[in-house]
Amino acid sequence: MPGRLAVISIGLLAASAAPALAMRRSYGSKAGARFAAGSVLATLAQQSLVGIAAARKNANLTAVDAMTLSRGVASAVLVGLLMSGVRRRNGLAGWLGWGSLVYGSIVCDWLDGPIARRLGATSELGALLDLESDSWLTLTAASSAATWGGLPGYCMAAPLARYALMVAALRRIPYSQIYADEPPWARPFGIAQMALFTAAMAPFGAAGTRIAVRLAAPLVAPLQLVGMLLLYRRSQRSIPT
Amino acid sequence: MTVQTPPSRRRELIGWTGFLLFVAMVFRLRRVLDRR
Question: Could you tell me the CA-to-CA distances from A234 to A182, A188, A230 in Å, in that order?
Answer without folding.
Answer: 9, 18, 6
